[in-house]
């Protein structure tokens, strides 16, 4: 009899286990918590290797990454060949970045943006992340307030300079109205109504999809 699936969940940039609180999965679940970068320029593969230490090398599992967490899921999967990857509200390479992200990547203007900006502009943050309910707005506000600015600065730089990992296959779930990564829906097997935070607003549907994937 096959062992039940093990899930390793990786939250988005600056987020934590709170974004997964509405998921209902059928078996063992672990949230990979963000580590502090060793240096302001720690390479993403090196960071992923440290994050991967929480995933046993010989264990079949599912790496489920949200947004920037999806980038890390793809990097970790290179080191854990028995892992299968699910991307939620994420992307697989720089060609999927919106035009503003591509400009920032080419010019490195992101270095001039204060990472504390969005927490101070809750209405703008809600629009970008596509949150509509009071519950989701309050959760987003709390997460943004708790985000470490040094980690955010490091993560934005790594995300925008990431070359992609086309050799890593992934199952993708994306929102129809994702303003942060609008091109993701065209590359996804599962498209759900909503914005960038469908992991919260569409948790029930995502739970069903993940459960279905592990039983096929």
Automatic annotation (TrEMBL):
The keyword Hydrolase appears for this protein: yes
Gene3D superfamilies recorded: alpha/beta hydrolase
Gene Ontology molecular function: hydrolase activity
Domain AB hydrolase-1: 9-206
Alphabetic keyword roster: Hydrolase
The keyword Hydrolase is assigned to this record: yes
Name the record gives this protein: Alpha/beta hydrolase
Species of provenance: Hymenobacter cyanobacteriorum
